What does this fold into?
Amino acid sequence: MHVKLPEVASATDAREAARALLDAGVDGIKLYAQTWASPIVVMPPDAVRGAAEEAHRRGKLVFAHPSNRDGLLNAVRGGVDVLVHTTPQMGPWNEAVLGEMTAARVTLIPTLKLWRYELRHDRESVRDQFVGVAVDQLRAWRERNGAVLFGTDVGYMNDYDPTDEYVLMSEAGMNSRDILASLTTAPAARFGASSRAGRVAAGLDADLVVLAADPAADVRAFAAVRHTIREGRVIYSAPPLLRAR
It folds into this structure.
């Protein structure tokens, strides 16, 4: 993407940048709270809060790419609504970190599959250890009944198959009902759409997915989509399976 992101160094900068984006009609604000690679730059807490206050004043959610401990805590303390990614670089989330996340009632999009993609050129042992930390972070968050939304960072990644994300979420202790909630009722609640979406009920939007197998038996079935229905209209059907004669 050939887009220059606004850079902010103060609450005033952040408010002005957020205001310009919101005036342009965006649905939410995302903050790069801490860079992923060197040079490491952390968004100041007052800048996070400035952007969050402007977005919340307009009734919009604020997302943060936390990257590491400072980015995560600044995002949580600054009023961010959704943390987009676990943070395996910082190691396990201890009770102090989890306590602040819980108190702030943030929502987490784990993107566990992303870490294997990011480290795809590293040794398998390094990759597995890194992903294992992210899985443990999600497990610790779920043990506190933290809200989780499904996401893989597709668009940044060029691997569109979500199967591995379901498997890793399962390894973190989420059962099929938990994962289903992350795809349906949890996002509907987080985005203020529970009155019309997220459930199968009379009067709600007819947005449905028909699977080829039961995810309660194997969470990989969440990726085995037979039909996708939006507002009562079939917009995708999987091609029929071919059988050998």
Observations:
- The mean pLDDT is 95.
- The CA atoms of residues 177 and 216 lie 8 Å apart.
